[in-house]
TrEMBL record:
Keywords, in A-Z order: Endoplasmic reticulum, Membrane, Signal, Transmembrane, Transmembrane helix
Main subcellular localisation: endoplasmic reticulum
Record bears the keyword Transmembrane helix: yes
InterPro entries cross-referenced by the UniProt entry: Emp24-like, GOLD_dom
SMART domains: EMP24_GP25L
Transmembrane segments annotated in the record for this chain: 6-24, 136-155
Keyword Mitochondrion: no
Localization (cell): Endoplasmic reticulum membrane; Membrane
Family statement drawn from the similarity comment of this UniProt entry: Belongs to the EMP24/GP25L family.
Residue stretches making up the GOLD domain: 29-152
Name recorded for this polypeptide: GOLD domain-containing protein
Membrane topology label: Single-pass type I membrane protein
Organism: Malurus cyaneus samueli
Length: 168
């Protein structure tokens, strides 16, 4: 079964709830920068799922598939660096206030060779947006050329008219 993507749903319970949902490729690292006050407990719930290209749906994770979580303090010190299973909870307490970097990476290498053959949703959206912007640019260039051509034709027609009426 060709699985290409991993979906992650995480909840961070700081002083309020912040939910994130994003897609990752095999062995791809995604990082979140979160400004935290000191002495704050952060709890993250996550679930790793594989994307099935044939069913166009997420499947439960295969055994051995997990998530590697790394948390770095504003001072650059690694606060948490641990491998977790396909679904679970991680937690840490910030002892410094400031921007903490929370990074996630799949531990799977089984599909790394074929992972690049299919785009993730955000890449597909970006590609669609770039194609649309390119089409809009070309349409604007065509409109400009038509406008210039019509303007030149009008000037030539008016000049010929004035010459024929002997006004010039």
């Amino acid at each position: 079964m060709k699985s290409k993507f991993i979906g992650i749903l995480m909840n961070f319970w700081i002083s309020f709830s912040l939910a994130l949902y994003f897609h990752m490729g095999e062995r791809e690292e995604k990082c979140i920068i979160e400004d935290l006050p000191s002495d704050t407990l952060v709890v993250g719930n996550y679930k790793v799922q594989r994307w099935d290209m044939h069913k166009h749906d997420f499947l439960e994770s295969a055994p051995g598939l997990g998530m590697f979580v790394t948390v770095t303090t504003p001072a650059g010190e690694v606060l948490l660096s641990k491998l977790y299973g396909p679904q679970g909870t991680f937690s840490f307490t910030s002892y410094l206030s400031g921007e903490h970097i929370i990074c996630f990476q799949s531990n799977s290498t089984r599909f790394a060779v074929i992972a690049g053959s299919k785009l993730e949703r955000e890449e597909k959206f970006r590609k669609t947006s770039e194609e649309t912007n390119s089409n809009i640019l070309w349409w604007a260039i065509v409109q400009t050329l038509i406008l210039i051509s019509v303007g030149i034709w009008q000037i030539k027609s008016l000049r010929d008219f004035f010459i024929s009426k002997k006004l010039v």
